[in-house]
Amino acid sequence: MGRLASVALIAALLLALTIAASPLAAAAGPAVPVWTKGDFWEYRGSFEFLNESLAVTLTFEVLSRESVDVRGTLYETYKTEMTTAMSGGGFTISTQGTAWFRRSDIAPVRIETEFFGSATTQSWDPPVRIEWPLEVGNSWSGTATVITESDLGTFEDTESYSMEVEMTARVEVPAGTFDTYVLKDTGSAEPSRTYYAARAGNYAKMEGAEALLGPGADFDLEDYKFQNAPGGLLPNVTGISVIGIDILWLILVIIFILVVMALILMRRRRPPLPTMAPPPPTDVQTAPPAE
Description:
Layout (H helix, E strand, L loop, with lengths): L2 H8 L29 E10 L2 E19 L2 E16 L2 E12 L5 E8 L2 E8 L13 E12 L2 E21 L2 E10 L7 E5 L4 E6 L2 H4 L5 E7 L14 H30 L22
Antiparallel strand pairs: 1-2, 1-12, 2-3, 3-4, 4-5, 5-6, 6-7, 7-8, 8-9, 9-10, 10-11, 11-12
């Protein structure tokens, strides 16, 4: 992603998820998870900023199914409500938005956010492609144009992506222990990994934020509700982890904006500097003392 577009996204945008550990038998995933109204996923992470520990919570909740038009192409999507909150240093900031994911492969189609009454929309044309079936060793690449619309104008940037199903892993997070497929973004200088858990119908863990947010900046699944959970081991494997690559960027941009907002708030809370009296004029002639 170009630097100019990244700056534009910071004013307008908004994950790669991960896990690590033990090998499982490789298997193809025959079906995309079916999300239902009321399904939700809550992720929690933290990072250090200016010697302050900041906690971040990100929640997606499925609202409905909806058709979304991107430059004349109609996509059938899941519409979700997205809530982000950050706390630390004596303040808490939260924001809400809406995210649409393509039902055929759970790729991000559009994300809308609002900060201080200013709305920003990010769309993918086309959405990041996902190849089937997902099997360890499979890889693919492609390009997608990211369109960002905000009060600053409309910006476009072409992203290249290269994905690889790296391995299987069993991971433990606050929401439970999950068998996952690990998807690695091999197209960036700082590769991120996403761990897809079929039983959760979404990611179990996110990794890859350390380059921007510092050590320990990962996100774990804290709580969830998935009404169509499969019963077998690693069935229903999908490319949902691919979403993680773009959503991680979304999270990072949101966090960046929240940090800026926090700095503004802290600056406003500082007491004003004492004002100094102006120096006496030097060109005033004093009258001589009366005799």
